[in-house]
Amino acid sequence: MTLDFLVINTYDVNTLGIADTSIYDSYPPVVVNPTMSITVPGFTSPVAIPFVPDEFNIFNSITLGLSTSPDITPLPDGIYYMVYTVDPALTYNVEKNIMRTNRIQEKFDSAFMKLDMMECDNAIRTQSKVVLSSINFMIQGSIAAANNCAIDTSNRLYIEADRQLNNFIRNNCGCSGSNYINNFYINN
């Protein structure tokens, strides 16, 4: 038996989707006490939740113990530490760190959709695209760092992406177009 799982994006700030991609010795799988332990960002104690083998499991704030029924709340972004265990006495387990970015991605998507792509001022539109591309690059870097256990780097990239995105939104993009003109147009 080889245990493994994938975190699948549900495109919903309220849910966390985890697919069991394990290879079991029999089909259907016969396992004892399949459990997913999840440590949510900002919390120190993991939550142990029954995990359905060979299925796509979806968790929310209620199943993770962050809220009570019927009040589902958005899950926090950040590093989730997960351990899938089958029959702890036999010590079959797999663990992963996952950087969840659904909330910042939702904010990024909203800022992106507010851009007027058909705006007459090409320099302002281009500068906005440059800023948003830079922010997206940091978000993706944060995910990559978490996937490679570089937790501090992941958190720093996320915080900086969030800071820049908030500044972009607060200043209504804050672009004069001069950065693009000075750095790209004049130099080319």
Name the average pLDDT. Answer: 85
Secondary structure tally, helices: 4
Proportion of residues in helical segments: 25-40%
Report the structural category.
Answer: alpha+beta
Q: Low-confidence segments, ≥5 residues, pLDDT <50?
A: none
Radius of gyration of CA atoms, rounded to a whole number: 21 Å
Order of strands, main sheet, comes to 4-3-6-7
Task: Let me know the number of strands.
Answer: 7
Strand portion = 15-25%
Secondary-structure arrangement, i.e. CATH architecture of the largest domain: Sandwich
SSE pattern, N- to C-terminal: EEEEEEEHHHH
Instruction: Name the overall outline.
Output: elongated
CATH hierarchy, class of the largest domain = Mainly Beta
Distance between the termini: 58 Å
Overall tally of domains: 2
CATH topology of the largest domain: Immunoglobulin-like
Largest sheet: 4 strands, antiparallel
